[in-house]
Design brief:
Rossmann fold, 2 domains, 15 strands, amino-acid transport, signal, Branched-chain amino acid transport system substrate-binding protein
Length: 378
């Protein structure tokens, strides 16, 4: 799929008589395939925001032209499309990488070619070590581990079992959780894994449940795997707290797992999922509720954390392009790195030379699934 989104609503006469400058923005997203639950709302969000921006005058009087490719979650396709965006489509910046795999395929190319790139994937390796032209909007998997372990520590939990996906995100978060568990006095007494296509995790969960001393279970992963884990967990009647990652922070996860099975599941998420119940003085209230209302009206589907990542990436890029006053990729990159206090649906971003994420742990909200919906723990 290739989508080119330009300004709508101008008359043919105006188009014929006016030479209008353009800023070319590229995107490679997993709008179809196994990661479509990530890429579909991301693509719809970017298309919506570009249309809205151009209808209001664009950036410094210039329209934004979005060239969007669907990589289907395939890193090879993502790299091919990134090459096409840079060499053939002449973009000055790229948003995308719905998954860690597709992000890493784009990141090396974008950094080498000097094109600013904002990733929508979770792994800490995307921005650590820092690459000059690579930024990201989601919290890292390491931060998710820290947020979860902070909650476990508050509950008096010291011994856990872990069941992780072997996909790029699951494997990365598993490693990060192991690395920081000791900082929270947490012992991982059972450590199981599953493949992306596995349809039954009862053997692994039974091993965990039969391990002495287990007080809670953590499932790093995204896609259908965590939903299967959650259903199997309920079927086995395991009476221990179950924690998921921010990789499943959407209503789609609740629907896939089933509201009854998902009841009580805890995970770190964003303000967007609880936009309607945020206090009026919450700095993210206006941004989250405005985006939520616009997306749900236009897309006809519930808002998701993942679309929020695209919203924030676009807001960051528009802000940087506006301040740069230039279509030079180096100028845009420099303006991105100088971003300070930009409020998004995911948190408040402040980048620096040594930080291309720009969020701290306070940007995460600890959430619990209650009665088929989201409830804030903190």
């Amino acid at each position: 799929m290739k989508t080119t989104m330009t300004l709508t609503g101008l008359t043919l006469a105006l188009l014929a008589s006016t030479a209008h400058a353009e800023l070319r923005l590229g995107a490679s997203l997993s709008a179809t395939g196994p990661a479509a639950f990530l890429g579909d709302p991301e693509a719809k969000t970017l298309e919506m925001l570009v249309e809205e921006l151009n209808a209001n005058g664009g950036i410094n009087g210039e329209d934004v032209v979005l060239t969007l490719y669907d990589d289907g979650g395939d890193p090879n396709k993502a790299r091919t499309f990134a090459t096409r965006l840079i060499e053939d489509d002449g973009v000055v910046a790229i948003i995308g990488g719905s998954t860690t795999g597709t992000t890493m395929a784009i990141a090396d190319l974008a950094d080498g070619e000097g094109i600013p790139f904002i990733s929508l994937a979770g792994a800490v390796s995307i921005i650590d070590p820092v690459r000059e032209f690579v930024f990201k909007t989601p919290h890292t998997d390491r931060m998710a581990c820290e947020k979860i372990f902070t909650d476990m520590q508050a509950q008096g939990t010291t011994v856990i079992g872990m069941i992780s996906g072997t996909d790029g995100f699951g494997a990365s978060m598993q490693a990060q959780c192991k690395d920081v568990a000791g900082d929270y006095d947490i012992t991982i007494a059972a450590d199981e894994t599953y493949g992306p296509g596995d349809a039954d995790m009862t053997p692994q969960l039974t091993n965990i449940a039969n391990t002495d001393g287990i007080q809670a279970v953590l499932n790093p992963g995204f896609g259908q795997g965590p939903a299967v884990v959650t259903r199997n967990y309920a079927q086995l009647g395991i009476d221990l707290p179950l924690y998921q990652s921010h990789g499943v922070a959407s209503n789609g996860f609740i629907e896939l797992a089933g509201a009854d099975a998902a009841e009580g599941v805890r995970l770190p998420g964003t303000a967007l999922l609880i936009a309607d119940i945020l206090p009026d003085d919450d700095p993210q209230k206006e941004v989250a509720t405005t985006y939520k209302a616009a997306f749900e009206e236009q897309a006809g589907q519930p808002v998701s954390t993942f679309g929020g990542y695209a919203h924030d990436a676009f807001a960051l890029m528009v802000d940087a392009m506006t301040r740069a006053g230039s279509d030079d990729p180096q100028d845009i990159r420099d303006a991105l790195e100088a971003t300070s206090g930009l409020i998004g649906t995911t948190g408040t971003y402040t980048f620096s030379e040594t930080d291309h994420l720009g969020l701290d742990l306070s940007a995460f909200r600890m959430l619990e699934i209650v009665d088929g919906g989201w409830s804030a723990i903190d």
